[in-house]
Design a protein that fits this description.
The complex is a heterodimer. By secondary structure, chain A is mainly alpha-helical. Chain A has one domain (about 10-150). Chain A contains 4 helices and no strands. Chain A has helices at about 10-30, 55-75, 85-110, 115-150. In chain A, helix 1 (about 10-30) runs antiparallel to helix 2, helix 2 runs parallel beside helix 4 (about 115-150) and helix 3 (about 85-110) runs antiparallel to helix 4 (about 115-150). By secondary structure, chain B is mostly helical. Chain B has one domain (about 1-60): lambda repressor-like DNA-binding domains (434 Repressor (Amino-terminal Domain), Orthogonal Bundle), CATH 1.10.260. Chain B has helices at about 5-10, 15-25, 25-35, 40-50, 55-60; strands at about 1-5, 60. Chain B has a two-stranded antiparallel ribbon. In chain B, helix 2 (about 15-25) packs across helix 3 (about 25-35). The longest helix of chain B is centred in the last third of the chain and has 11 residues, at about 40-50. The chains are: A mainly alpha, B mainly alpha. At the A-B interface, helix 3 and helix 4 of A face helix 3 of B.
Chain lengths: ~150, ~70
């Protein structure tokens, strides 16, 4: 079985680099920039700022950096791709959808107005983050159980 | 589904890693199949049976729960 539509194995490293570039940039922005902040959310809030201002360009770049980083991290090939990895990936995707929509239901019930826009924006990243954590966790467990078995044999 | 992979490996005197290389999967996958945690695809089951020179039904056996 061939796994399609996945980035090469090495692109996971690029993903890590992009995400760890984003964090110091946002910390620096918080320290040195005292203007309007939207915390680099994936959704640009409907305010009166226009397109292609320095603030807008900065937000676009910061958002793209972290989104592309998460995508590379989530959907790069494993060192050894086989049918079990494909199944674990699909399984993790299903869990991610359940998690995302449970969260979405809770958000709709407990928030309103601008908070709703904010949190739904965060949710766009959160589902990738949840998927990455779930998938890496099952791969980790697979390797652990296999190591334990090897020690016994 | 149960399987006799461990026994067949012992007869043929090959390790999990050897079998994994022969059928083109990771050693972890062979390990989880042997311990009945993962049910292989038909293609993989056929490949494993071919390595042992047996029919699939001789290596993989349906369980009562299946």
């Amino acid at each position: 079985m061939k796994s399609r539509f996945l980035f090469p194995y090495g692109s996971r490293l690029i993903g890590y680099v992009l995400i760890f570039t984003y964090i110091p940039i946002m910390v620096a922005k918080k320290i040195f920039y005292h203007g309007y902040m939207d915390h680099g959310l994936p959704i640009k809030l409907p305010d009166n700022s226009s397109l292609l201002t320095p603030d807008h360009v900065f937000n676009v770049i910061a958002t793209l950096v972290v989104t592309i980083g998460l995508l590379l991290l989530a959907f790069s090939k494993e060192k050894f791709e086989d049918e079990q990895i494909i199944q674990l990936r699909l399984d993790s995707l299903q869990w991610t959808m359940y998690f995302t929509y449970l969260l979405f239901i809770l958000i709709v019930i407990f928030t309103s107005g601008i908070d709703l826009v904010h949190i739904v924006g965060i949710n766009l990243w959160l589902q990738l983050v949840f998927f990455i954590i779930r998938f890496r966790w099952v791969i980790f467990r697979l390797n652990q159980s296999s190591k334990a078995e090897k020690a016994v044999l | 589904m149960k399987n006799n992979i461990r026994v067949e490996r012992a007869i043929k005197n090959i390790t999990q890693a050897d079998l994994a290389d022969l059928v083109g999967v990771s050693r972890q996958t062979i390990n989880t199949i042997e311990s009945n945690k993962y049910v292989p695809s038909t293609v993989l089951a056929l490949k494993i049976a071919r390595i042992f020179g047996k029919h699939v039904e001789e290596v993989f056996i349906l369980d009562e729960e299946d």
